[in-house]
């Protein structure tokens, strides 16, 4: 097993630490170009913030995305930061259809200003149903005290340097890194949520929900379960451990999780110099460029009116610097999402206050629809689709245990409100 020279990639993973931003601030001239397409209702002083772009890549090693590496990742299963106190109950399901939510991505974004955010990860989940996302659209406009029923949820988890789960020493960034605790057992179907319900026959398989138990049963656990329970020494602890090992080895039975990627970061300013960067971009490109362009065109077909075309043009101009980006990260006072279209943007009053400390939420990152193409989501009428998902988090990144639910604003390309 070769474990040398991995230091670099791990450093890149840590790149979301906000400290490193100061280095490359000498690209101001480029920003002025965006100013000629001002929208009247867009209080645009256009003083652009340094944005970090996220790109997906196949993980380099099978351990690269384990939780002790503090990864930013998309698809597959979450690498829970606090492995014990996972979100539970209604937090894990779509408020609209009641199905357990699917893991979309997580961003490792520690904040240096205090110890309690030494480790800090944001997790995004969503329902697979476009119908639910369309309903979610109306819900997100509801203001306090109305309860919003969401199909997209974001959780924030943070840990101080000294914590029960990980060594306080810097990780080696290789296969020898181990977490200090095994973490809570997870659902054998989705591998995502806590498996606190057992199969009543074998008492080995664990599930987050009855829905996932039923799906596992239909897709093969029925047989496996019989073998486990008919096994002659099934009361014997050895047989029981055998069963556990068997089930653990195929930890995630669901075949409908999205493909797993590592998210690598680059400063957007790296792409500013000129657009000749074809070679540079091609390097980490997983899909041909024309595929990305098709995506963008099909998005554009849905637009109505000049305002949207104009807004789209400036969005497109900015994205074109690095068309494969799936994520734009910028957590600083006054930073705003780059909205693809005019319709369906929140006003300040549409952004709620922190559920926990009552303080303000601020924009932290946005997810672009390119991700759906890396996930192989089809372009059908009822397939999942969005123009952008903007994530807002507690400005104070307030303290406290467990996973705190933050706020996502979804802009759809089809809803012109
Ligand atoms: Zn749903
Ligand atoms: Zn499950
Ligand atoms: Zn069973
Ligand atoms: Zn707060």
User: Major sheet: order of its strands?
Assistant: 1-8-2-3-4-5-12-11-10-9
Number of strands: 12
Bound molecules: zinc ion
Helix content class: 10-25%
Largest sheet: 10 strands, antiparallel, barrel
Averaged pLDDT, please? 82
Radius of gyration: 22 Å
Number of helices: 9
**Secondary-structure class:** alpha+beta
What is the overall shape? globular
The ordered string of helix (H) and strand (E) elements is HHEEEEHEEEHHEHHHEEHEE
Q: How far apart are the termini?
A: 55 Å
Tell me the β content: 15-25%
**Contiguous uncertain segments of 5+ residues:** 1-45, 233-240, 275-287
Your description of this structure?
This protein is an alpha+beta fold and 417 residues long. It has helices spanning 7-13, 28-31, 130-139, 210-230, 237-249, 278-283, 289-300, 305-319, 370-374, and strands at 52-57, 73-74, 102-108, 119-126, 152-159, 197-198, 206-207, 261-267, 327-329, 361-367, 388-394, 404-411. A 10-stranded antiparallel β-barrel has the order 1-8-2-3-4-5-12-11-10-9. Strands 6-7 form a two-stranded antiparallel sheet. β6 and β7 (206-207) form a beta hairpin. The radius of gyration is 22 Å and the shape is globular. The model is unreliable at 1-45, 233-240 and 275-287 (pLDDT under 50).
Task: Give me the secondary-structure topology.
Layout: H1 7-13, H2 28-31, E1 52-57, E2 73-74, E3 102-108, E4 119-126, H3 130-139, E5 152-159, E6 197-198, E7 206-207, H4 210-230, H5 237-249, E8 261-267, H6 278-283, H7 289-300, H8 305-319, E9 327-329, E10 361-367, H9 370-374, E11 388-394, E12 404-411
Antiparallel strand pairs: 1-8, 1-9, 2-3, 2-8, 3-4, 4-5, 5-12, 6-7, 9-10, 10-11, 11-12
């Amino acid at each position: 097993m070769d474990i040398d020279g991995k230091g670099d990639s791990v450093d890149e993973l840590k790149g979301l630490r906000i400290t490193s931003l100061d280095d490359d601030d000498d690209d101001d001239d480029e920003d002025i170009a965006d100013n000629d397409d001002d929208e009247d209702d867009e209080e645009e002083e256009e003083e652009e913030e340094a944005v970090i772009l996220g790109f997906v890549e196949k993980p380099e090693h099978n351990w690269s995305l384990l939780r002790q590496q503090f990864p930013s990742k998309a698809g597959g299963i979450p690498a829970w930061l606090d492995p014990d106190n996972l979100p539970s109950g209604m937090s894990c399901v779509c408020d609209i259809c009641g199905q357990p939510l699917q893991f979309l991505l997580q961003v490792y974004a520690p904040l240096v200003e205090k110890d309690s955010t030494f480790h800090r990860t944001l997790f995004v989940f969503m329902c697979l149903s476009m119908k639910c996302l369309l309903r979610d659209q109306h819900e997100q406009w509801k203001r306090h005290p109305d309860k919003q029923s969401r199909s997209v949820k974001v959780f924030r988890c943070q840990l101080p340097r000294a914590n029960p789960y990980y060594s306080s020493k810097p990780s080696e960034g290789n296969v020898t890194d181990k977490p200090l605790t095994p973490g809570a057992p997870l659902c054998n179907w989705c591998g995502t949520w806590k498996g606190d319900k057992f199969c009543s026959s074998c008492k080995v398989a664990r599930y987050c929900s009855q829905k996932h138990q039923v799906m596992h049963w239909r897709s093969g656990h029925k047989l496996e379960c019989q073998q486990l329970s008919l096994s002659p020494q099934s009361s014997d602890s050895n047989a029981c451990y055998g069963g556990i090992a068997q089930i653990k080895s195929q930890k995630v039975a669901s075949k409908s999780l999205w493909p797993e990627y590592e998210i690598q970061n680059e400063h957007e300013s790296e792409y500013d110099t000129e657009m000749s960067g074809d070679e540079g971009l091609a390097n980490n490109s997983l899909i041909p460029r024309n595929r990305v362009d098709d995506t963008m065109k099909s998005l554009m077909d849905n637009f109505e009116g000049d305002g949207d075309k104009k807004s789209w043009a400036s969005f497109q101009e900015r994205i074109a610097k690095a068309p494969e980006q799936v994520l734009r990260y910028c957590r600083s006072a006054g930073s705003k999402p780059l909205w693809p279209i005019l319709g369906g943007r929140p006003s300040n009053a549409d952004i709620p206050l922190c559920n926990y400390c009552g303080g303000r939420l601020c924009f932290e990152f946005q997810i672009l629809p390119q991700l759906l193409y890396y996930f192989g989501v089809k372009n059908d009428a009822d397939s999942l689709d969005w123009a952008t998902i903007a994530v807002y988090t507690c400005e104070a990144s307030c303290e406290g245990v467990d996973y705190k639910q933050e706020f996502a604003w979804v802009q759809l390309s089809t809803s012109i409100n």
